[in-house]
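Could you please consider the sequence and fold following this short note?
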Amino acid sequence: MNKIDISQWKPFAIEKLFTVVKGTRLTKANMRDGEIRFIGASAINNGVTAQIANKEKLHPANTITITYNGSVGEAFYQDKEFWASDDVNVLYPKFEMNQYTALFIIPLLKSAGRKYAFIDKWKKETMEKDSIMLPVDETGNPDFAYMESYMRNLESAVSSSLTALRSALR
């Protein structure tokens, strides 16, 4: 794929795109074994650090989790409901988000969080005010159709490359 031209992109405050909700503390002693994802301050496994049965403070699918403590700035798309630890903020989209637009936005969020990785927590209030650069449509709004199309094309290109590699290995 060609390099993206970002010269016409514009900054958008995270709070204009998402409602940022702080996760809830759940100690290991209070965790019950189950099938619900527990998202902690982890940089791996989509942020999943346990599987629990607790249901009191669940967040819906089709949201983004982002750590503000521990592995600061690690962001993941959540396609199933989950519990977010108190080291994690959950980003509820204020637009029609799908996995493709989320996967486009996540690296931009990670980049914004890098400046906090070694010096401070990326607190909710600070995260809300921080901005990410996004492509815009002719009206100056985020171009979600472009983001989705770009990620779908990238997925297709990667799939084709993997198919060719599998064929070559046979």
Notes: The mean pLDDT is 93. The radius of gyration is 17 Å. The domain at 10-169 is CATH 3.90.220.20 (Adenine-n6-DNA-methyltransferase TaqI; Chain A, domain 2). The chain has one domain: 10-169.
